[in-house]
């Protein structure tokens, strides 16, 4: 048996030991046991919202603990295989494939381990706004809404539409939705920023090339038990009539709610529900999440002025460029990660960009397509 295989097996073992320490593996195992014990109580589902929060915590923990268990078991099996392969040539042929799978599984797990922020295991509240580019920008915003929905479907995440305003000609003016699943916010928070599309405009009879922008904002869906310091006197509350689909009741009553947090300029709105009370509750939840994210990033980067100076629109501020003309490609302006198939990205294949951002945040080199 070649020495290389023993060296690679030892490398896997050392990386697993480091990962166990960094993840506090024993503590997570205990947390899982505690949650499973709570879930077995007869009154567990009496409080549906709290129960769903607990189930979400369990799924997030399992998304780390179970793959790590599998890797730990896999390295033990590999040790046995290497020993037996010295005597059995048929087993020796299986060693390279077994090592490659373990290395791949371990790399995926190491990426998940980077999701260690205080809210990374929460759901993600995602808002998309059409910006520069006229009707093309409205169409582009709706394309992005579909893209994130397909990514969520592929990962078996739940999606709930909170707010949507359609444009009269095509596409949307804005939309807000929640993605719920293991580490949803941890994966999606790097999508915050300006997304730029270059294509031949389908709305221009002259067939000219058009550049359009859509702004994405991602905040954690923090649980109600999480304290967020918001002075209600700092929040302006506006009611207005909902627009777009929703039935006659929605359009005849001031059921829509807009909250403006004056000190930061953060604005959230909700008009999806028929009830003003429900829209108000959802809007406050969105505001709490936005404020929590501001505080999280302030702690991380000490850039307290970020949200006052952040460019809202225009060239040069984009985080990712999408091209349909002159060729088809998508490239992240921060990480350099690149995909040569625009349509694959639009079909929800954005995991490579999300993983590359995680590596970029910790200064690791991201692999290119």
Any overview of this molecule?
With 369 residues, this protein is of the alpha+beta class. It contains twelve helices and eleven strands. It has helices at 3-23, 25-39, 48-85, 89-92, 95-113, 134-154, 184-188, 248-252, 276-301, 306-309, 342-346, 351-361; strands at 123-130, 158-166, 172-180, 193-200, 209-221, 235-240, 256-261, 266-270, 318-323, 329-332, 338-339. Strands 2-3-1-5-4-9-10-11 form an eight-stranded mixed β-sheet, sandwiched between helices. A three-stranded antiparallel β-sheet has the order 6-7-8, covered by helices on one side. The longest helix has 38 residues, at 48-85. It is globular, with a radius of gyration of 24 Å.
Topology:
Elements: H1 3-23, H2 25-39, H3 48-85, H4 89-92, H5 95-113, E1 123-130, H6 134-154, E2 158-166, E3 172-180, H7 184-188, E4 193-200, E5 209-221, E6 235-240, H8 248-252, E7 256-261, E8 266-270, H9 276-301, H10 306-309, E9 318-323, E10 329-332, E11 338-339, H11 342-346, H12 351-361
Parallel strand pairs: 4-9
Antiparallel strand pairs: 1-3, 1-5, 2-3, 4-5, 6-7, 7-8, 9-10, 10-11
Helix pairs in contact: 1-3, 1-5, 2-3, 3-5
Strand content: 15-25%
Count of helical regions: 12
Distance between the termini: 32 Å
Task: Using the CA coordinates, give the radius of gyration.
Answer: 24 Å
User: Largest sheet, order of strands side by side?
Assistant: 2-3-1-5-4-9-10-11
Helix content: 40-55%
Q: What is the β-strand count? A: 11
Q: State the secondary-structure class.
A: alpha+beta
**Biggest sheet overview:** 8 strands, mixed
Shape: globular
What number is the mean pLDDT?
Answer: 86
Instruction: Return the string of H and E elements.
Output: HHHHHEHEEHEEEHEEHHEEEHH
